[in-house]
Give the backbone structure.
Amino acid sequence: MASHGESKWVYSFGAGKTEGRADMKNLLGGKGANLAEMANLGLPVPPGFTITTEVCTYFYANGRTYPVELKDQVAAALAEIEQAMGAVFGDANNPLLVSVRSGARASMPGMMDTVLNLGLNDVTVAGLATRSGDARFAYDSYRRFIQMYGNVVLDVDHHHFEEILDSVKRDRGYSLDTDLTAADWQAVIADYKAMVERELGRPFPQDPQEQLWGAVGAVFGSWMNARAITYRKLHDIPAEWGTAVNVQSMVFGNMGNDCATGVAFTRNPSTGENAFYGEYLVNAQGEDVVAGIRTPQHLTIAGREANKSDLPSMEEVMPEVFNQLNEVRLRLEKHYRDMQDIEFTVQQNKLYMLQTRTGKRTAQAALRIAVDMATEALVTKAEAVSRIDPASLDQLLHPTLDPKAERKVIAKGLPASPGAASGKVVFSADDAETQAALGDAVILCRIETSPEDIHGMHAAKGILTTRGGMTSHAAVVARGMGRACVAGAGELRIDYKTKVMSVRGVQVKEGDLVTIDGSTGEVMLGAVPTVQPELSGDFATLMGWADELRRMKVRANAETALDAATARKFGAEGIGLCRTEHMFFDPARILAVREMILAETEEGRRKALAKLEPFQKQDFVELFTIMAGLPVTIRLLDPPLHEFLPNTEKEMAEVAAAAGTDPLRVHQRSVQLHEANPMLGHRGCRLGITYPEIYEMQARAIFSAAADVAKSGTPVTPEVMIPIVATRKELDILKAVIDRVAAEVKAASGQEFEYSVGTMIELPRAALRAGEIAETAEFFSFGTNDLTQTTLGISRDDAGSFLPDYERAGIIEHDPFATLDQDGVGELVRIGAERGRAARPGIKLGICGEHGGDPASIQFCESVGLDYVSCSPYRVPIARLAAAQAALKTDTVKRD
Ligand code: PEP
Ligand code: MG
């Protein structure tokens, strides 16, 4: 806001004075703030101005109208550009031309549309022709303007323009746009204008002011288009942020062979290598590079060689300007201390910078860039750690193609986004979404993608296109989303009508399995086997830094030896939840489990339990051995017995035979044990209260395993955990059973071992009464799956049927079973932690619900001061990184 009581809606840049800064992104949008910042750095930025995001907010809050002061502020800013450029907007002899671009706070690739050459009309085009001395260039510019403005602002479908251009080319026997002469373009323009008038019932606007305001309105209007709304939804961008509008004087990359335009990354966005990386075109304008009409050329000699291109690089064609650009590259990286994605234009050998922003990159590149920049002392280790999105590690933890596997490569495209993916072929974004919702892995195959396809790209495991380069829409978006992508596999022919993709006699139909390798660009038939990734190099370095910075420990939820070994490989510091019931489903044991459940007497149950005990003991011996002294939290039997009941006649007969009773009795007992609402039924510690012998057997298995392992010299620290506790009394009774068994095992084995007994906090009552529960419990583990279920009164099993409606209606932002409901469930966790600590200072506190692997929830756990989080083995690295970031944000960084 300006200080003179009048609101400031417009900020100038580059025309002598620059009013914005990089830290004004909320007001100026990313593009506007960075243009201002580049101008402040003294880089060559064509002068312009930014209409703020507050105007967008005003626009939507006031029935799509503008603040009264806006017109005058825009006029004043435009006058400054005119002065700086020595040209006048709308002048017949010396016209100023501008571009109009959107620019939200967060970059929204492909969402908003650009209009170039605005200010051209039937009169000014002649002025441009005279002043540039190039009539062909002037009329080409005018027809581009009509095309872009017609499409973006006036909403005339682009195929109308393409048809006209195609027919002119056909009539004259041309194959390239560059074959058209000034007179040809004039003919095209006449046809374009006639077509627009026919389509809209009014002529193409000739008044530059009308053109300007039309474009500004279109940018604000596009903030609410369907593509923008989808993108915002996928990326959690609130609609209230709004977009800014950037109006900038035109510079031309298409005025001759000493002109060029290009896009570049200051480091390689796929691998992260510290090498200038980009594409350019001589004598071309902005959109030509990404439009895929001409094949873009490499910026550097190294890039050209690496890609075996025979088209000369910019480094060779215009070495001086290239060197200047390379200096800008280094300057920008130093200033922003991050990899930048830049756009530039060269007009008559003079370099202009049109954009800089933090570049999107693959997870692999992000790691390498973060580690390299910390090593180069450009950023601190803490900054390097903060820069990696924990969820993106998922891409690195996922398998790549088994190098030994047989591959039937049918085509090769560009390695646009790394990772391997197999799935069924689909040819449209809608089909991708439908098939994925049915649980199929799909590969979305398109000639090229556009912003309309985003939902399908998100649903697909991989994306394959037959057209477009490394900066094509498919490539950029797939990298951002972490989807494998092979782009521009030009040998493949896709026929949308017959839903067939073919290459050299091979036909791939919809539903056929293919594999793509986004790291090599290969397209293969069938599903090719994969291998686990290596967790060394940059990954290990960064995780090491994260470990130095975090306060909370990270454990894993694991019950099998394989899970435990995986968890350790990923850096787990213990087991936070071993769900013993998972061990019961093993085919070798289920019969004895059923026998135990269906027994009608304690004696019958004990007989069956005796069969199970050696199995359980062996499980624990393995876990303790693998975890070698790290804490292992073992939860006693939790699920409703209902889940183990035999279902078929055959299963009932088997149980009856094993127990020595008749199948009818088994059937009757089964009916008796059936529960209408098992999630809130006879489960958790309630089983231990009714059948103490079950917990007794489990405790004996745990302690005798501990004694054995300890005897062999491996340290053990079992933590016995009781589920679904609501009252202290429950815990008192069961802890007494466990302590008694521990004493018996110690006496019988003559082996000492440490152990502790604690409880899960997964019922609201337990959280509220945590004070008294902590008098008995030696540790708490927040079971936020059940705590969410019981706090919200939403069944874990059935929530999926209506939670999406709740998300759509804006009642909830995220699935509360995936991301902790911090206000509600979180408050109970906070209360439980506080009351538990007050009663037993230093009580160990952890979390073992699914939220233990969710970065946002991990941040919450840090703020409550939990000692550890526990999550599935594959999420352990994500949790390690998220815990470090949480410590940095909460300023509880470990400094020892
Ligand atoms: C929980 O309730 O959060 C939990 C970890 O236990 P389970 O998911 O096994 O009920
Ligand atoms: Mg639970």
Remarks:
- The longest strand covers residues 350-358.
- The chain has a mean pLDDT of 91.
